[in-house]
Each structure stands twice: as C-alpha cells, then as structure tokens.
Design brief:
alpha+beta, 6-stranded mixed β-sheet, 5 helices, 6 strands, 27% strand, globular
Length: 159
Amino acid sequence: MRDSIIGISSRAYDGRQVDSSLRFVAHLDRELINDCTYFVVEIGEQIVACGGWSHRKRLYAGSGAGSGDAEMLEPATDPARIRAMFVLPEFARRGIGRMILEACEEEARSAGFRELELMAMLSGHAMYLACGYHDIERVPATLEDGTPYPLIRMRKKMS
C-alpha cells in the first residue's frame, strides 16, 4: 500500500497529500480479512497487489470510518463496497488491479449484490472508469490531520 501510494498516487496528489495518506490511508483493512473478502496477488513471494469487497456499510477505511459502518448491507437494495485497492507501481497497467476488481465483483454478485460502489482515489479513477464504473460525486475529503484529499464516489450496476 505504501509503495503504491508513493509511486502511483503521487501522480495525482501533491507531496503533502501523499505524506498524509501514508499515515492515514495506507493501513491494512482488517475488516476485509476477517470477512474473507480480501485478495492479494503474489508474484514469487512478493505481494504485488491487493484489494477487496465488503458487504458492510463502510465505504472506505481510514477517514471513511464512522458509526454504523460495520452494519451489514442488504444485497437486493444496497451496493456492495469495493475497498483497499493497491498495486505496486512496477506492476501497474498489467491488468492485475482489474483481475482483483473482477474477483471482487464476481464474489459480490454471488452474494446477491446487483450494484457496487467505491470511493476512488484520483490515481485510480481512470481504471475504474475503464471497468464500467461511473462517477456519482466528487468528494472534498480531508484526512485526519486536515490535509485535503479529494476522492470520487463511483458506482457500477452488475448485469
């Protein structure tokens, strides 16, 4: 996560935003691990990408945490959440992130969800657009130390 933020997010965010996101964003999303909805891709013995999906209300970890976020979503009416997607810079643009995203989508579909939602960092926006997600709103998020960290809320209907 840290290497991804340093190498990829730095293309869309300034130095202060990157430094702040290393403190407040680059944390393992244990809820996804505990729910068994977290994926990693390994090449050799190195983890090169990670990401997951959730059937809980929390849209994103870190600054996105709030009361009631651990509540379960209703698959027939609520969108599943895509969270914690990161790829090492040297493995970017090889389809690895898309592979994780597709695995998340398939599991969410199997769990009865018809729609997906995520909060995209600016650095991942183009990939999500290419994968069929559309913008819902631009979010002027702020990290815990007051650093502005704009995000884009996105959604996708599954067929």
